Amino acid sequence: MASPSKPSSPFGCFVISITLVHFIASIMSLGTCQSLVEESSTSDDTTTKAFFIFGDSTVDSGNNNYIDTVPENRANYKPYGQNGYFKEPTGRFSDGRVIVDFIGEYEKLPLVPAFLQPNADYTNGVNFASGGAGVLAETNQGVVIDLPTQLRNFEEVRVSLSEKLGEKKAKELISEAIYFISIGSNDYMGGYLGNPKMQESYNPEQYVGMVIGNLTQAIQVLYEKGARKFGFLSLSPLGCLPALRALNSKSDKGGCFEAASALAQAHNHALSSVLKSLEQILEGFKYSNSNFYDWLQERISNPTNHGFKDGINACCGSGPYGGVFSCGGTKEVEDYELCENVGDYVWWDSFHPTEKIHEQFAKTLWNGPYSSVRPYNLKRLFSNIKVIKAHTIADVVDRRETGGEGIFH
């Protein structure tokens, strides 16, 4: 296996300086913090709104339908998409829609097409995501569209928009668009925990640093091409996915695979620190981030409090917890079971949540309060509302004393 991609300038030393980034970010967070006060709206109704999506199966809308890949990376067959919102399975790893479909709907955008969809109109955005993809090119190499390739595909779209709309309008569209990134799980599950050679080469802290370094570089590439507004779906408690719960030696007690969850938490904490730093370093950089880990863990642990009955087992699959990834019968294990009422379940298949979870969290990302999504929610980013900066440590302290930490830690 080739050595994983090392981040290049100006973040080339990231792997060995991740602790320093945490320190810088913590100092900066004391000096300034986004206020909830809205100064003014600079939204221009004549500017075309666009939504560009990068990631893995959490947001893939069908790109893997058009590539040569393995059955585990496809979802264009029944019972995927069974709830009837789409006439037939689309390649989404869900019983229906995924989170970015709802966000686009809230912004009143047309359905954002997959990049590889024939004759797609890219004017209102494109979905570049690919099921199984990772931040690192080496993750599931050869059977997915990895993040570096997704970035190259974006450049192709950017050039196409310039030719179609003209340079000026294309630049406006690019700068006002939202860039949504949901990726990283596969780097840790298959790329690290499922790869003994990688574990021999890198300890967990080094590996997380490498993934975050490459993700930081990807953000910078988009920024240099004109992107300014970003949304992020942080990683879920990976060890509690039915597939990984079934791999846990304590699975008979219903326990999660803690090593996987620990990697997800480390990734989320590092990304949060990097985003705070980038906000200070890159002029005009704005972002929306949230704690998907704790949000989903709450629904896994207390499903009945949120309209579910089962937070542990997959609706579609086989084996313990439905953790054998057999949904649809196209993989090595062909037998699978399908639940009667998918609305009762947090998990759709062995790795992916139900449409109901996607919709609930989309609402949080869209217009959730500062305590749940920060420093902006996606509605604010789309409307381009300016926010006044808090100038004193007292503002930060006051927010914490009034319970403003919310689901963030």
Descriptive notes:
- The chain is an alpha/beta fold.
- Helices cover 38% and strands 13% of the residues.
- The chain has a six-stranded mixed sheet with strand order 3-2-4-5-6-11, sandwiched between helices. A two-stranded antiparallel sheet has the order 1-12. It has a two-stranded parallel ribbon with strand order 7-10.
- Strand 2, helix 2 and strand 3 form a beta-alpha-beta unit.
- Helix 1 packs across helix 9 and helix 7 runs parallel beside helix 9.
- It is globular, with a radius of gyration of 20 Å.
- About 14% of the residues have low confidence.
How is the topology of this model organized?
Elements: H1 18-31, E1 33-41, E2 51-55, H2 99-106, E3 125-127, H3 147-165, H4 167-176, E4 178-182, H5 185-193, H6 196-201, H7 204-224, E5 229-232, H8 242-247, H9 258-281, E6 286-290, H10 292-301, E7 310-314, E8 316-317, E9 337-338, E10 345-347, H11 355-367, E11 373-375, H12 378-383, E12 385-390, H13 393-401
Parallel strand pairs: 2-3, 2-4, 4-5, 5-6, 7-10
Antiparallel strand pairs: 1-12, 6-11, 8-9
